Amino acid sequence: MVNIIHRIGIRSSAENVFKALSTIKGLSNWWTEETEGDERVGEKITFTFRSETGDIKGQMAMEVHELNPQKNIIWRCISGPDEWIGTEITFELSQQDDQIIVIFGHRNWKEQVEFTAHCSMKWAVFLLSLREYVETGKGKPSPRDLKIDNWN
Amino acid sequence: MVNIIHRIGIRSSAENVFKALSTIKGLSNWWTEETEGDERVGEKITFTFRSETGDIKGQMAMEVHELNPQKNIIWRCISGPDEWIGTEITFELSQQDDQIIVIFGHRNWKEQVEFTAHCSMKWAVFLLSLREYVETGKGKPSPRDLKIDNWN
């Protein structure tokens, strides 16, 4: 199995970081503005990504599998790109020095493909958006996200 | 074996991207200002990272293993952090649409550790610096690099 795993530090409280990762409002401020659904365990959140002209470029649904306040989150991808279905998205929080450290994972890809490399880079850019949102109140969610290559 | 693999697109020529990845001058403009050595195949390049106060925070040496102009580069890490020794750094270039696509790899880590996750995020930030340097003439090499967590 192939995993994308990144580490970022955020100067804020664990409560604020957890809120940004676990609520519809929080997620819509750093990943995609079009975040809809029910954020509770066992329920489903749908994320839609559009081009600047409004066409849908990607859409995926995550089932919320674990939610441990200020500690960790696990989602399971139940629809979206073929390569994503069955993968898990994980966030683990800890306090180190004056930062909340987030270990982000997009785990259990069946194989390493070029799309995995694209997603790895893109997740890093969205984690910078997460940090910016939590620290300053303003992130760069889709469709205002930083583009990284010819796929987005 | 664990691999970090990212994909980024740069609006420039393959020559310019290759130059930024394969020459002492190019590397010192996006990875670390303190890049020294001999850029030819079989030779060694040393990269030094310092804190803002001048202390050495990290230093690694790469042996240039392959250099195929406008196509790919392979380095082998011969000294540096324990986890890096024996790993390979790879860059593969291709033209797609109006961009040069770089598939970056930091391959063959013995295991996934927290430091791998730090390096994965840090490499993404340095690839943004590479793109900025090639497209605008000004990157963000160490020690002016974007810090991502409590380790740097």
Tell me about this structure.
With 152 residues, chain A is an alpha+beta fold. Chain A has helices at residues 14-22, 24-28, 114-136; strands at 2-10, 34-37, 44-50, 56-68, 72-79, 88-96, 99-109. Chain A is globular and about 40 Å long. The two termini of chain A are 25 Å apart. The A-B interface holds A 3-9, 96-99, 101, 103-104, 112, 114, 116-118, 120-121, 124-125, 127-128, 146, 148-151 and B 3-9, 96-99, 101, 103-104, 112, 114, 116-118, 120-121, 124-125, 127-128, 148-151.
How many helices of chain A does DSSP assign? Answer: 3
Quaternary state, please?
homodimer
Structural class assignment of chain A: alpha+beta
Average pLDDT, all residues of chain A: 97
Helix content of chain A: 10-25%
- Mind describing the biggest β-sheet of chain A? 7 strands, antiparallel
Q: Distance between the terminal alpha carbons of chain A, to the nearest Å?
A: 25 Å
Number of strands of chain A: 7
Beta-strand proportion of chain A: 35-45%
What form of chain A results from the Cα inertia axes?
globular
Biggest contact: A-B, 30 and 29 residues
User: Which regions of chain A contain 5 or more consecutive residues with pLDDT less than 50?
Assistant: none
Q: In angstroms, what is the radius of gyration of chain A? A: 14 Å
Q: Helices and strands of chain A, in N-to-C order?
A: EHHEEEEEEH
